[in-house]
Amino acid sequence: MAKNALQAQLLKAGLVDAKKAKKINQQQQHAIKTGNTDDEVKKALAQAQTEKLARDQALNKERQQALEEKSSAANIRQMLIQHQIQGTAGEVSYQFIDAGKIKKIYVTQEIYNQIVLGRIAIARLDEQYPLLPRILADKIAERAPEVIIIRNDKTAATQATDEEDPYAAYVIPDDLMW
Do the beta carbons of residue 96 and residue 150 sit within 8 Å? Predict the structure, then answer.
């Protein structure tokens, strides 16, 4: 009837009936015949552990990358705040496009000329537009190109003209004031 002592005690106590004990014995015999033993359970457990370890490593890598991006953004923000050119407010307006909208800042004539020549760049910091030296703007643009709005090239002022162009003799200034 009952193969082991625990089953015999459960049957005697009335906690398990004879049909259930017989069914459990049949399941155990079937598991032994089909080879579904502890080795397969151990293999499945080891595979589950390796899959969990791989998921944990991928999640940890994503978290580390997000932390590095956040740190880099904070570092760029700090550089913008610390190294922006002070005392640039003036009466001359410089217009530029930011996110499809025309923006305007008022600067001195000297600063305006330096922006046009490419010596000073304009960056975006929240709702403000700090002015930065070209060297610093180049370093920031390597890390986060979306922060730098205006960084005029020195070669843009000396564009090559087409020989067949009838208006080639007429130079159009890029700092035209309206």
Answer: yes
> Considering only CA atoms, which of 85, 78, 95 is closest in space to residue 144?
78
The answer to whether 93 and 161 are in contact (CB under 8 A) is: no
- Token pair 């709702």: residue: 127
Q: Report percent pLDDT > 70 for the chain.
A: 86
Q: List pLDDT tens digits, range 72-90.
A: 888 888 888 888 888 878 8
3-state secondary structure of 106: strand
Q: Give the Cα separation of 149 and 101 in Å (integer).
A: 12
Q: Which of 108, 105, 110 is nearest to 150 (CA)?
A: 105
Q: How far apart, in whole angstroms, are the C-alpha atoms of residue 63 and residue 70?
A: 11
Span 117-170, pLDDT tens digits: 888 898 888 888 889 888 888 888 888 888 888 888 765 444 554 567 787 777
For the entire predicted model, the pTM comes to 0.53
Which ranges in 5-122 belong to alpha helices (H)? 5-13, 18-34, 38-83, 109-117
The 10 Å Cβ neighbour count of residue 74 is 10
Q: Could you count the other beta carbons within 10 Å of the beta carbon of residue 120?
A: 23
